[in-house]
Structures are given as C-alpha cells and as structure tokens.
Design goal:
Length: 226
C-alpha cells in the first residue's frame, strides 16, 4: 500500500484520491479542540478528533470555545469551523476531484482554496458563494443575514435577487434570500482574525477502498508553529 505524507504548514504533497464509493470519505479532520461532534448521514453522532473521516452529508457541530479544521482529500481545500457553528460537508465525485459544498446553517467558517480541483461553494440560507483559488470568511446569523469577508481572490455571491463579486478587503452582505447581495469595503476591526492555535506535532493515518477494491492509506503530519 502506498503512503502519502502531508505537512499542514508547508504542503509537501497534495492528496490524490481515485474513489467514487459513498462509503469513502471526502474530507478529514486535521484539527479539533473542545466539544466538536459530527452527525453522520445515518444520523449517528460521534465525537470529532484529528483523523476523523468525513463522508459527504456529514454535519460538523462546534460548541462554545471549540473549533475544527478539515481538509478535502482531493485538493487540500481547507475549512476552519469556529465555535458555535453548524455546517454540512458535501462532496460529489467528478473524475479525480469532488464538487465541494459547505452548507453553513449557522456560525462562522474560514475557507482557503489554493489548488482547486472541481468547484467549491459555501451555501447559506440566503445565498451561494462560488470561488476559484481564494480565501474568505462566511458568517451566518441564526435566522438572519449572511456576511462574507474577502481575504484573497474573487468570490461570486449569488441568490435569486442578484449577483455580486467580492474581492480581497471587501465585505459582502446578504440580508435575506429575498435581498440582493451588497459589497462594500471592509471597515477596520470588522473582519474576524485568523488565530493559529498552538500544538505539538501529531501524526495520524486512515485507510479506504479504491474503486478497484484495493486499499489505500493516507498519512498526515500536523505541525503548527509555536
């Protein structure tokens, strides 16, 4: 069996997956702290820890003072889920990549896409944000507005009322599904701050089946700067 190594700070090798089976993961948890749970497609709830595999349709839930970071295994797209958040991870197989979607029900996530394979979207109750090679924040208020903050690249925000393009240093606001997306310059202190949590080096690996029935193993090495 082949073993692939990945350093989370310096990406030394992108993950490459050749699988279409619904039983195989689309993403993996690389960081977790506090009370984080996953609700699987079969409704079973399990605690989340580094190395937890995420199948399409699984929901990640973080409590107060908790967070999780996940990576899609086709291209390494990163999603950080902040405290008091709930989001569903979806990945539809397309050749050697996934059509990726994060449905953000409530809370805050940070998405970073650097070597994109397939599409990447963040969907909320008010709108859809489609991206190409970028980094941005998505914040969904409970039964309220959605706010996006551009860090890098371009994000296209869309709903049935209109389309807006969000760039670095800009804020996108969608008051409701019946409101047109609005983009303006980000105000000082308005955008969340990406704080890197300190940790030691951790290694973990997981195994899954390829389409031809053979097993494949992926090994991760997580190292964060102190």
């Amino acid at each position: 069996m082949k073993i692939m190594r990945l350093n989370i700070i310096v990406l030394t090798a992108m993950l490459f997956v050749q699988t279409a089976s619904a039983s195989n993961p689309v993403a993996v948890v690389i960081r977790a702290k506090g009370k984080v749970h996953m609700v699987k497609p079969d409704k079973k709830q399990v605690p989340v820890k580094p190395g937890t595999r995420i199948n399409s349709g699984s929901k990640i839930i973080t409590k107060t003072k908790s967070f999780a970071a996940i990576k899609f295994i086709d291209d390494g797209s990163l999603v950080r889920v902040r405290q008091n958040s709930s989001c569903t991870v979806e990945g539809k197989k397309e050749e050697n990549s996934f059509l990726k979607n994060i449905f953000l029900e409530v809370g805050t996530i940070f998405s970073k896409i650097t070597r994109q394979k397939g599409s990447f979207r963040v969907t909320t109750p008010t709108s859809v944000a489609s991206v190409k090679g970028t980094a941005f924040w998505s914040i969904q208020k409970f039964k309220g507005a959605t706010t996006y903050f551009g860090e890098e690249g371009i994000v296209e925000i869309e709903n049935k009322k209109g389309v807006a393009r969000l760039g670095a240093g800009e804020t996108g606001i969608v008051a409701s599904k019946n409101s047109k997306p609005i983009v303006r310059r980000t105000r000082p202190g308005e955008k969340p701050v990406l704080d890197e949590e300190k940790s030691d080096v951790n290694e973990f690996e997981f195994e899954f089946n390829k389409d031809d029935g053979q097993k494949k193993r992926l090994r991760f090495k997580i190292k964060t700067k102190k």
